[in-house]
Amino acid sequence: MSYQIADQPVDSTLRDYVVRPTLPLLATMMCGAWLAWPWFAFNAIAIGSPTRRREVALCAAAFAATLGLALVVLVLFRAGVIPNGLPLRFALLAITAFKLAISYYLVKIQERTFHVYTYYGGPVRDARRLLSVGWIARGLVLGLIDHPLWVIVIGGVL
Amino acid sequence: MEARQIDVLLEQAEVQRRLGNHRGATDLARRALTLDPTHPRGHAALAAILLDARRLTGAGLEIRSALALDGNDAYIHRIAAVVLAAERKLDEAWAHSLIAMQDAIPVPSAYVVAARIRVLQGDVGNARELLLEALALEAAHTDALTELARLAHTGGKPDEAAQWITQALGSDPADHDAHVVAGHIDLTRGDAASAEHHARFVLQHRADDAGALELWAAIQARRSLLLGAWWRLSSWLLLGGDRRQIALLIGGFVVSRIAIIITDELDLDRLSRVLSLMWFALCAYTWFAPVMFRRMVARSLAAVRLDPEF
């Protein structure tokens, strides 16, 4: 058994499904967190990233933290602390910015391993079709549960 | 027998690293560490290779393994100083470079490493003194001469920079780093043709030399106003690391959204639409500019003929 370099991806049976980390980022903007964060987690496993556990945990934590923030905004709104109009829109913008920041951070972590992965000739799939399907399906997904929390947590940026 | 085999593998790895064959060098160092995973210099050599290949995470982990296994080896401290400087942990890097310089047999490279850290710490005067000390140990040390040229160049002294780099290239006419610095000096002086000549020379021998590719990209960036602007912005962002990039992107997004929300609330529909379009245009530009720039650089690189011995 040869020495395993710490930053080198481990062998994975899902190599054929690896995509550029910027595609899940694009999914954050165009489709929503429902597609983007699970995609980031899957991509980390498919690449065989040495930090995959951390990346998967970060994706799960992102959902939990967004839910927490959304709950706070909703409770404050219902208590009248955050009035309708400009203050509510700013509060929702803060949540969107948080989601985008998490996605950018995930890209930065995943790109490090992705560069090593491609350096050793790992295959990369063009997943624009999946992105298009996500874009078309986002209305359907958002409409699955008629509750503001659902829309805030899994919605996109656009 | 095994120890000798490891030494040979590490020597070969170092030769390949110097030749720019990072993959081959990594493989040789890995083979050495497979034979003995507790070889401190093996981990340090691998750290130096990974750093050259711009794999900073791996380099950081390897050099920490080396230091844990042997904390008294000046060579390991020298590599640790370089890796930690790349991680922007400058105080720690400086501490390691001090140990490296205290070796029984002074090595000019240790002084060059220390000088590079001093530059990052903003102490250019001390960096210059350290480089002159390196030259006192070895009068024609190419790396020290090249660093002095770089120092003069960034300090806005092109004539002095040209003198140092002429000496560096006189000491070793094939030194890649010296050619890259010479190219940047020429570019600043407006001589793009000469800069291209230096970049071409390096790329003919080492097609994936990061410094030469960066110089080549800087030359190409001058040929297109729009793509050049992106090049300058991305270079500035890269210097600041991940935090600067994320802060700027999120900051830009939030500011634009606030502007759009306010104009929308004030019923300034037309202005709100213009702001939305501007934001969309900026997103499209930052998305497509790197792709177009990479294509432009790749197209120009296709014209570079590799050396027959490449």
Task: Tell me what the structure shows.
The complex is a heterodimer of chains A (158) and B (310). Chain A is mostly helical and 158 residues long. Chain A has one domain. Helix content of chain A is 68%, strand content 0%. The longest helix of chain A is centred in the middle third of the chain and has 34 residues. The model of chain A has no long low-confidence stretch (mean pLDDT 92). Chain B is an all-alpha fold. Among the domains of chain B are: 67 residues, Serine Threonine Protein Phosphatase 5, Tetratricopeptide repeat (Alpha Horseshoe); 76 residues, no CATH class. Chain B contains 15 helices and no strands. Chain B starts with a helix and ends in a 9-residue tail after the last helix. The model of chain B has no long low-confidence stretch (mean pLDDT 90). The chains are: A mainly alpha (158), B mainly alpha (310). Chains A and B meet through helix 4 of A and helix 2, helix 4 and helix 14 of B.
Write the layout of secondary structure elements.
The complex is a heterodimer of chains A (158) and B (310).
Chain A: H1 22-30, H2 33-47, H3 52-78, H4 86-119, H5 128-142, H6 148-154
Chain B: H1 2-19, H2 22-35, H3 40-52, H4 56-69, H5 74-86, H6 90-101, H7 108-120, H8 124-137, H9 142-154, H10 158-171, H11 176-188, H12 192-205, H13 210-221, H14 225-265, H15 269-301
Helix pairs in contact in B: 1-2, 1-3, 2-3, 3-4, 3-5, 4-5, 5-6, 5-7, 6-7, 7-8, 7-9, 8-9, 9-10, 9-11, 10-11, 11-12, 11-13, 12-13, 13-14, 13-15, 14-15
